[in-house]
Amino acid sequence: MKKSDKGEFAEVKPEDRKQVIISAILDWLIAIAIGVLVGVLMVVFVVQKDNVYGDSMLPNLRSGFVVLAEKISTYSDNYERGDIVILDGHDMEGYNHEEYLIKRIVGLPGETVRIADGHVYIREVGATDFYMLEEPYLDATVITSVMSSGLERGYGEITLGEDEYYCLGDNRPVSNDSRSLGPFSADRIKGIAFLIIYPFNEFGLI
């Protein structure tokens, strides 16, 4: 029923009622479609969910943690030293798992990275001297060293290519990283981890 100009209520025609229902359903479907599209675009182009496997990022990330990684930086290779990145290690000699790796960038393109005396040393592009990298995210007892296999491959001191990054786990004694796998090319970086979403009591920015 609807009110007429004379203040009386007139009966709503069945075809009008049907049109209102169809319009409401269409609005609802459009809203759902937009929500799904936005969600898909977010997953494909903006963020992704990744699981942490193993103890290579202790004490900062534990096995079983779930993190969100932003993918926007991958479109411009916009990475900084210290970023925790999601890495595709498929087909790299020394890596035979399906899961992505999670490591920290310590060496940037064009730099020379040297592992010596239990520390990481960096010679920046154009510099003549190395400096010892300060790594406050490491446990105070951690010593950084390179196994003999990595030394044989030249990963104990290496000058990175224009699109290569030297990446290490925070728990150096157990981490399989650039010391044994070599540098990671930019196309292997799938995102920068920025948020712990599980377990819920650990929720927060990385």
Describe the structure.
The chain is of the alpha+beta class and 206 residues long. It folds into 2 domains: 2-45; 52-205, Umud Fragment, subunit A. The protein has helices at 14-46, 148-152, 178-181; strands at residues 2-3, 9-10, 47-51, 66-70, 84-87, 101-107, 112-116, 119-123, 131-132, 157-159, 164-168, 184-185, 189-198, 204-205. Strands 3, 4, 5, 6, 11, 12, 13 and 14 form an 8-stranded antiparallel β-sheet that branches. It has a 4-stranded antiparallel β-sheet with strand order 9-8-7-10, with no helix packed on it. A hairpin with a 5-residue loop joins β1 (2-3) and β2 (9-10). The longest helix is centred in the first third of the chain and has 33 residues, at 14-46. The model has no long low-confidence stretch (mean pLDDT 88).
Unreliable runs:
none
Count the helices. How many? 3
In CATH terms, the superfamily of the largest domain is Umud Fragment, subunit A
N-C termini distance: 58 Å
Q: Architecture of the largest domain, according to CATH?
A: Ribbon
- Strand percentage lies at 25-35%
Strand runs, count: 14
The main sheet comes to: 8 strands, antiparallel
The SSE string, one letter per element, is: EEHEEEEEEEHEEHEEE
How many distinct domains? Answer: 2
Structural class: alpha+beta
User: What would CATH call the class of the largest domain?
Assistant: Mainly Beta
User: pLDDT average, as an integer?
Assistant: 88
Query: What Rg, in angstroms, do the CA atoms define?
Result: 26 Å
Helix-residue proportion: 10-25%
CATH domain topology of the largest domain: Umud Fragment, subunit A
Apparent shape: elongated
